[in-house]
Amino acid sequence: MTEDQVLLQDAAERYLRDSYDFNARRERLTRGVYTDPQHWQAFAEMGWLTLPVPEHLDGLGLGTRECAILAELCGRYLVTEPLIEVLMSAATLIAPSPHAAAWLGQLVSGELIPLAAIDECAGRRNERPATVLSRGDSGWRLTGVKKWVSAGPSATHFIVLASCDEGLAWVLCPRDAAGVTCETFPTHDGRGGANCSFDTTIEEHQILLAGTAALSALEAYRELAMTLSSAEILGAAHAALNTTVEYTKQRVQFGQPLASFQALQHRMANMLIQVELTRSLVYAACDAADGDTPDRSRFACAAKVKASTVGRKVSQEAIQLHGGIATTDEYIVGHFFKRITALESWVCSRGEALREFMAFSG
Amino acid sequence: MNASNPIPGDYTAFRETVREFLASALTPELARAGERTTSVFSDFEAGRQWQSALHARGWGAPEWPLEHGGTGWDIQQRYIFLEECRLANAPNPVMMGIQMLGPMLMHFGTEAQKAAYLPGIISGDDVWCQGYSEPGSGSDLASLKTTADRVGDEYVVNGTKIWTSMAHYSNWIFCLVRTDKNAKPQAGISFLLIDMATPGITVTPFSSLDGEIEQCQVFFEDVRVPVSNLLGEENQGWTVAKYLLEFERGGQHFTIDLKKQLRKLQQLVTSDANAAADDPTFAFRIAETEIDVIALEQTELRIKGSVAAGEHPGALSSLVKVSGTELGQQCAELLIEAAGQGATPWQSEVLAPDYQGPTAAPEECVTTMAEYINSRATTIYGGTAEIQRGIIAKHVLGL
């Protein structure tokens, strides 16, 4: 890591360690508060929300590696605010838009929480959405239904992937606009979700990208999602391992700490081996993206496959090695397990990533 | 997939120099022996010839310091050299002298010992084997029972060593022996250098599962060894042996060979001999393995970067050993599945560099089964996978 990356990591870790309390998080979620306004304001003040936005657009101009530092910490501290989602929207959908200037001011201040709305049925890759952006006598109109928007209850805006005459379009639409209905629901990973329907008028500056630019943005969004969800899984899996190590050192059965049993030691060693292998691959995917190497997408796919496999295994083992306590909602380790499970299929599933990896190899 | 190199600098010219040397020195016979290597060791004669060619070029022991005939290469140059040799199918010489004994001699040896032994090691004229394990002492090495009793200016050695690779070709053996039966196990061990021609030594080779002979048991009956052949202090043998573990750490590169295995697999699945052609899941398994190999490669690069920065990679090397050997086994399994019955013929003579005759197995599968069989040993020798996991549990996780 560079010096600046270490500074970013230290500052972010300090904030989350001191302020992001697990019990406060649990209590807040029972009230249906998925985004804590104080946390979000703090994220904005630390400059995180426009971290990957180029400097000429008043962002910090940082890369995938820096986003991954935050993603890893979000995994470790079980952050329910859609920080990663907003970084992805900012980097791949808003910054490249000719209308970026119209939105970035609200983004940097934290007022705008724009989440991409892509899925129309269970998370499959969708380059021909049934949601349509069309031009009528009275201007642009967006019509269609989007499902499974992770962290949807936290959104102020949706960036909707729609079909249009030019192919694809990304349309930024306020959640409270006339003709937008949004049905929210709790989710097991603590972020909440939303299904939305759109039958609403659209102004020119809301059409962020259209045509080939929109298609490339979809590719960029998916690639960044693969890398950052892998980084978040990495953070959560490593935290699940550390929790397990600490617990087995304390927990006494048969007159000795669980950690003294070789059968358990070797399982924890396996967890560490797999977490560290995943770390190498996730960081390599970041470096490939930031270096814009020809194999950057292939690295992102590889990272998603590895992180999903390892995240599942490590978080399952974490529960098993703890025993009964890990099956209660009051205890933290099951929450790593639930978040990792949600991330496995988020935007691009393990299976899709594997097939795409093979297509690159073919 | 190109791995990002953690070490800055332009090594193109260096790589070219290595390639030029390989193009001229590595004869087709030697490369053939290298390609048909089925374990750690290539055909012995081919390995010996190759070591002498390397020595003649001044590259007999790239890792050694310049003053002892090493190259002075940095970590990246050493890696490139290894990579080019492996890709060109250079055979593996018997490396126990160069890789194991050499560093210990340089650190613990007297000037007389260094002068006596280092030149023969680097030239390949002396072949050294390692006498550590015993029938009753495998992973629990410190329980070893071979004794060395001091009588005047000599030690009298009695006992037996096993898994002594290539002892039947060796003229020297370095041994851990017990010199104090009353001390704690590790504290009563000494490190002795023994001439294999000494009366009282018997070497009994035995076949490995693949039918080849690499392993031996060595018996010592009243073998008289001069006290001057003691390396380090008496009863400090455990410290001498442990130093090597420190020296070795971070120096292992499994992915060069793993990528070769993956390439072989690609060749096999696109050839007529592909027994897995009708299995639609096979391509997925190859891809998953390839992803694991990339993850390991990136981990090796992380370690290389930290070594280059002067850091100690510590137990990350145990991680690489476990992961590298287990992935090698996984690749070997895919290879025998792809080869199917084509992998079953056992034809020892094809491993020799001068073999010109027909092969019973399809050309691309002649070594597949032997490599699979021998891959099972990789998680046993050099510290079993269980010992490595124990190291990770203790030194990384603090369990």
Structure description:
The complex is a heterodimer of chains A (362) and B (399). Chain A has 362 residues and is of the alpha+beta class. Chain A is 52% helix and 17% strand. The radius of gyration of chain A is 21 Å and the shape is globular. Chain B is α+β, with helices and mostly antiparallel strands. Chain B has three domains: 82 residues, no CATH class; 111 residues, Butyryl-CoA Dehydrogenase, subunit A, domain 2; 147 residues, Butyryl-CoA Dehydrogenase, subunit A, domain 3 (Up-down Bundle). Chain B has twelve helices and eight strands. In chain B, β2 and β3 form a beta hairpin. In chain B, α10 runs antiparallel to α12. The chains are: A alpha+beta (362), B alpha+beta (399).
Structural class of chain A: alpha+beta
Q: Give Rg of chain B in angstroms.
A: 22 Å
Which CATH first-tier class of the largest domain in chain A would you pick? Mainly Alpha
Strand order of the largest sheet of chain B: 1-4-5-8
Query: Could you tell me the strand content of chain B as a percent range?
Result: 5-15%
Task: Based on the coordinates given, report the CATH architecture of the largest domain in chain A.
Answer: Up-down Bundle
H and E order of chain B: HHHHHHEEEEEEEEHHHHHH
**What structural class results from the helix and strand content of chain B?**
alpha+beta
As a percent range, the share of helical residues of chain B equals 40-55%
Kindly list the characteristics that best describe this protein.
heterodimer, A: 362 residues, alpha+beta, Butyryl-Coa Dehydrogenase, subunit A, domain 1, Butyryl-CoA Dehydrogenase, subunit A, domain 2, Butyryl-CoA Dehydrogenase, subunit A, domain 3, 3 domains, four-stranded mixed beta sheet, four-stranded antiparallel beta sheet, globular, B: 399 residues
